[in-house]
Amino acid sequence: MSFDTLKSKIPDFAKDVRLNLSSLAQDETLSEQQKYGLILACGIATRNAEVAAACEAEAKAKLSPVALDAARAAASIMAMNNVYYRFVHLASNKEYGTLPAKLRMNVIGNPGVDKVDFELWSLAVSAINGCGMCIDAHEKVLKDAGLPTATVQTAVRFAAIIQSAAVALEAAALATAA
């Protein structure tokens, strides 16, 4: 499914979502790799097959095979980390934070693409997954690397828009089924 097909499937009650989706490709503040890596990683993170497929199709035309795999890796590794570190953060027993995670995360240290791009994708996926501990960690790396606040905000805006597309499709499916 293409991104245009995805936009056409967004119902009229979610017109703002459709318009926001249209704005993603027009963004000029991000590099092509940052932009399309965000689109793919966030699409996968929505766990909506239609959204993920449309984001994959959009990214495939713009990213190298290595960058495609890195965006997929960001979504995958954050799926694991966000569950674990959200638990560590929210659990009343703070002893969990002193224990080794014992989770393989080598891709974070060697993602195959610019570290800042991978961190940006990881931050956006962490926002979708609601892990405050991971959001803080990735934002710190990005700020320490000199990334402007507006760029970090743009990544989270991409995440919000792509997540809202998944919710709009699901709401439309429920309305049709009723």
Automatic annotation (TrEMBL):
<dbReference type="GO" id="GO:0006979">
    <property type="term" value="P:response to oxidative stress"/>
</dbReference>
<keyword id="KW-0560">Oxidoreductase</keyword>
<feature type="domain" description="Carboxymuconolactone decarboxylase-like">
    <location>
        <begin position="96"/>
        <end position="176"/>
    </location>
</feature>
<keyword id="KW-0676">Redox-active center</keyword>
<dbReference type="InterPro" id="IPR004674">
    <property type="entry name" value="AhpD"/>
</dbReference>
<keyword id="KW-0575">Peroxidase</keyword>
<dbReference type="GO" id="GO:0045454">
    <property type="term" value="P:cell redox homeostasis"/>
</dbReference>
<feature type="active site" description="Cysteine sulfenic acid (-SOH) intermediate">
    <location>
        <position position="134"/>
    </location>
</feature>
<dbReference type="GO" id="GO:0015036">
    <property type="term" value="F:disulfide oxidoreductase activity"/>
</dbReference>
<dbReference type="InterPro" id="IPR004675">
    <property type="entry name" value="AhpD_core"/>
</dbReference>
<protein>
    <recommendedName>
        <fullName>Alkyl hydroperoxide reductase AhpD</fullName>
        <ecNumber>1.11.1.28</ecNumber>
    </recommendedName>
</protein>
<comment type="function">
    <text>Antioxidant protein with alkyl hydroperoxidase activity. Required for the reduction of the AhpC active site cysteine residues and for the regeneration of the AhpC enzyme activity.</text>
</comment>
<feature type="active site" description="Proton donor">
    <location>
        <position position="131"/>
    </location>
</feature>
<dbReference type="GO" id="GO:0032843">
    <property type="term" value="F:hydroperoxide reductase activity"/>
</dbReference>
<dbReference type="InterPro" id="IPR003779">
    <property type="entry name" value="CMD-like"/>
</dbReference>
<keyword id="KW-0049">Antioxidant</keyword>
<keyword id="KW-1015">Disulfide bond</keyword>
<comment type="similarity">
    <text>Belongs to the AhpD family.</text>
</comment>
<dbReference type="GO" id="GO:0051920">
    <property type="term" value="F:peroxiredoxin activity"/>
</dbReference>
<feature type="disulfide bond">
    <location>
        <begin position="131"/>
        <end position="134"/>
    </location>
</feature>
<dbReference type="InterPro" id="IPR029032">
    <property type="entry name" value="AhpD-like"/>
</dbReference>
<dbReference type="Pfam" id="PF02627">
    <property type="entry name" value="CMD"/>
</dbReference>
